[in-house]
Write a structure and sequence with these properties.
By secondary structure, the protein is α/β, with parallel strands linked by helices. It has a single domain, classed as Rossmann fold.
Length: 273
């Protein structure tokens, strides 16, 4: 593990391989370790780099720190990380709230992006003005209400399983390995910050998506909540240069649940772009 200063903070990262850089961006309740099984597959062709976002393990973390959902701020951290590492352009592989951050990064810094692979960003702003957007948001929010209440109260033992099962379906938490469960616990502070923050949630829009010309692979889990499928539907309309894939038998955490299928799809896409 290495550490690097970027955007006024210190970020932990690991890297493997040589070649064009690929940056891996984790989701909520996760850190650079979620990509451990992926890096060796990419290292044959690329310089594969996985980092922990601000306020995530093993970086300094606090419930009063940067919330997980501050996608605009995390996007600027990603840009600063790329500058600090040295490459002029990168490919990005990102999951969930990390993919939301990658959207902000790509829209604000298009000159830094070669291509993107984004799995289910919770970019709820994409649903504004759609016929069923309000209903989809209400349904999804209802599934997570009890989880957010427990997380806000600092009850990780109750809040983390409720959240994971709310996003991934019944039994999703129970199917996770002990290693992944420990990673979720290690990153509880940033998610508690997300539940407690008064910081306005950033809104990523269709107009912002239209500015991203880099080739973009959009992925869904076949069994993921409608919320994520509808967001990908809208991104597919708004992004000028995109392809779409659905990973069979997976829910939201596609890179962990179907590692081989996800990597195969991303590597095939990057080989063309």
């Amino acid at each position: 593990m290495k550490r690097i200063s970027a955007n006024g903070t210190e970020l932990a990262y690991v890297e493997l391989g040589r070649g064009d850089p690929v940056i891996f961006v984790h989701g909520g309740l996760q850190d650079y370790r979620m990509w451990a099984g992926h890096l060796p597959k990419f290292a044959d062709r690329y310089r594969a780099i996985a980092y922990s976002r601000r306020n995530n393990f093993p970086n300094e973390s606090s419930p009063e720190g940067m919330p997980d959902g501050a996608a605009d701020a995390h996007g600027e951290d990603l840009a600063a990380l790329v500058r600090a590492l040295g490459p002029s352009k990168v490919r990005v592989v990102a999951h969930s709230s990390g993919a939301h951050a990658a959207l902000f990064f790509a829209a604000s810094h298009p000159e830094m992006v070669t291509s993107l692979a984004l799995n289910e960003p919770p970019a709820a702003g994409m649903l504004a003005g759609t016929s069923d957007g309000a209903d989809v948001l209400k349904e999804f929010g209802g599934k997570l209400a009890a989880a957010r209440e427990a997380i806000r109260a600092g009850n990780a033992e109750v809040g983390i399983p409720l959240f994971v099962n709310g996003v991934g379906g019944a039994g999703a938490y129970e199917r996770r390995s002990d290693v992944d469960k420990q990673m979720n616990l290690d990153n509880f502070a940033t998610y508690r910050a997300d539940a407690m923050t008064k910081r306005p949630r950033p809104v990523f829009t269709c107009d912002m998506a239209k500015t991203i010309n880099a080739p973009t692979l959009l992925s869904n889990g076949e069994l993921s909540p409608k919320f994520f499928h509808r967001i990908i539907d809208q991104l597919a309309i708004c992004l000028p240069n995109q392809e779409r894939t659905t990973i069979a038998g997976s829910s939201h955490t596609v890179p962990s649940e179907k590692l081989d299928a996800f990597d195969q799809a991303v590597l095939a896409f990057f080989s063309k772009h």
